[in-house]
Amino acid sequence: MELVIKPHKDKAHKVGVIYSSEGEAAKAFEPLAETYKNHGFEAVFEPVAEKVKLTLVSIESGAQIKYPDLNIKPDNFKLLAQIRRDDLINFVHVYWKLGEIYIAKVRFKNPTPLIVCRYEIIISD
Predict the structure, then answer these.
(1) Contact between 112 and 34 (Cβ < 8 Å)
(2) The total number of structural domains that make up the chain
(3) Where in the sequence is the domain holding 6, given as residue range(s)?
């Protein structure tokens, strides 16, 4: 799986985890969308070599969603610097189709993304 970051000027930024298929992405996102639809999150990014660990921490409950071993392109991680740490970010699961990235649908509908209210980057020594 891979992490993708897409900053925007006029709408919410997007951070997504790329899955190998739409079905896999939707299956993994459905319980998150149902359980945490009214939660705000803090995202913690931990770069490790050429990968990144991503932990989403619910501000309401403290529950954690972990993605411990995501690939990330160096240029993509640089895009995070374009996003202020307290800007709203939509978190979604995505997949490639015909050379483009699409947001996975849940039950044939576009799911409400998880809302990341702030983020931090932790650099380990």
Answers:
(1) no
(2) 1
(3) 2-121
